[in-house]
Amino acid sequence: MKTKILFIMNPKSGVGRKDSIPELIDKYIDKDLFDYQIANTEYAGHATELAQQATQDKIDIVAAIGGDGTVNEVGKALVNTDTAIGIIPTGSGNGLARHLAIPVNIKKSLQILNQACIHELDYGTINDIPFFCTCGMGFDAFISMKFAEAGKRGVITYVQKVLEEGLKYEPQTYDIEDDEGIHHYKAFLISVANASQYGNNAYIAPQASMSDGLLDIIIMEPFDILEAPQVAIEMFNKTLDKNSKIKTFKAKHIHIHRKEEGVIHFDGDPIMAGTDVDIKLIRKGIKVVVNPNKHKKQQQPNMIQTSFSQLFSNIDLIRCNINKQSRKVQALNKTILRKLNI
Fold it and tell me: How many secondary structure helices (H) and strands (E) does the chain include?
C-alpha cells in the first residue's frame, strides 16, 4: 500500500511565486511509493484545519509548503498523532527546515521527502500554544510584531526593522522560575529554543536539539552599539553562546513574570500576552520527516565570519581596556586633587 501525502501550500509565504510547485511535485515525488494531493490555504488558520482533517482521513504525511508560520499551523494539528509533518521550505527564514538540514530547494527537499525518514521529535508550548523552533519575548518578539505590520516579507524588511528599532528599544526586567528557583534578569530579549535558529542561519541557540528532552533558554543582556556587530556576527557564526552578554541554561519548564503585559512570539508569529508566561517542552510529541544525512550538511562558520568575529572581539577588549585605564586615571586625578587640597 502506498504512503499517502497531503501537500498544504501557502501561496503567500516567502517572497517568490508558487505557480510552478505543483508541476515540480508531480515531476520529483516518487509515485511508486506515494499517493499525493495538493491543497492551497485560503486564510490564516486554514492550514491547521486542513491538517486536522488529514489526521482524521489517516493521511500518513502532511507536507507544509511555506515558511515557519505555515509549518507551525500544520504542526500544531499533528502533535500527538500518527501523522508526520514534512517540510518544503519556501518562506522568508525557514528556521525549522534549516535546523533539520532540509534543503531550501524544492527539488532537493522533495528528494528528502521521498526517503520518508521519520523521527519522533520534541516540541514546546508557550501559554499552551505549540512552537517547534523558537519562542520568546523582548526585542525579537517586538521585531516580529513590526515585521508582521510591515506587510512585506523577506530578509531586507527584517533587517530594516532591526536597524530602525534596535537602538531605541528599552530592555525589560524579568523573573524566570525553573526547578532551581527564581532568577532575576534585565534582558534585551529572552528566547526559548527547541531548535537552533530563528531562520536564515541566524543561530540563537547553536547547541539546541529537538531530541534531548530540554529547551535552551537564552537571556541576552543589554549591550551597547559597539557590541552590536559582534552579537550579529556570532549569531551567524554559531558562537553566540560564547558571548559574555549571553546567559544560557536548559530546562523542561520555565515560568516568566514581567512587570507589564506585551508581545510574545511563537515561531516568529507575534501575539499579545499578559505578565505571566508559561513555557514547557513536550517530549517526542511530533513525528517529522527528517534528512537522514543531516550530519553531513552541518553549516560551518566561514573564514570571513570568523575573521570579523575575531576583529570585533579585539575591538571589545580594547574598549574594555580603555575603560579600565580611564577609571584608573580618574582615580589618580582624585588622589592628586585631595593631596593638593591638604
Answer: 9, 18
Pairing mode, strands 61-66 and 84-89: parallel
CB neighbourhood size of 245 (10 A) = 18
Q: What is the pLDDT of residues 258-277, one digit of tens each?
A: 999 999 999 988 899 999 99
Residues 161-182 pLDDT 10s: 455 555 567 889 999 999 999 9
Asked if 67 and 92 count as a contact pair (C-beta separation under 8 A), the reply is yes
Element (H, E) at 180: none
Q: Which three cell numbers stand for residue 325?
A: 585605564
Distances from the Cα of 75 to the Cα of 63, 244, 317, 328, angstroms: 10, 35, 45, 57
Distance CA 342, CA 335 (A): 11
Task: Please name which of 60, 48, 63 lies closest in space to residue 7, comparing C-alpha atoms.
Answer: 63
Phi and psi angles of residue 202, each rounded to the nearest 5 degrees, phi first: -95, 100
- What residues does 154 pair with on adjacent strands? none
Element (DSSP H or E) covering residue 288: strand 276-289
The answer to whether the CB of 277 falls within 8 A of the CB of 172 is: no
**How would you classify the pairing of strands 129-131 and 118-126?**
antiparallel
Whether residue 205 contacts residue 193, with contact meaning beta carbons closer than 8 Å, is answered with yes
d(CA 212, CA 144): 27
- Cβ within 8 Å of residue 221, ≥6 positions away: 171, 185, 186, 187, 188, 245, 246, 247
d(C-alpha 29, C-alpha 31), whole Å: 6
Read off φ and ψ for residue 6, nearest 5 degrees: -110, 120
| Listed residue (91, 17, 78, 24) closest to 47, CA to CA | 78
Give pTM, 2 decimals. 0.79
Q: What is the mean pLDDT of the chain?
A: 83
Which amino acid, residue 194? Answer: N
User: Residue 11 burial by CB count (10 A; 0-12/13-18/19+): exposed, middle or buried?
Assistant: middle
C-alpha distances (whole Å) from 58 to each of 98, 116, 326, 329 are 28, 16, 70, 75
Q: Residue 44 to residues 72, 239, 299: CA-CA distances in angstroms?
A: 12, 36, 33
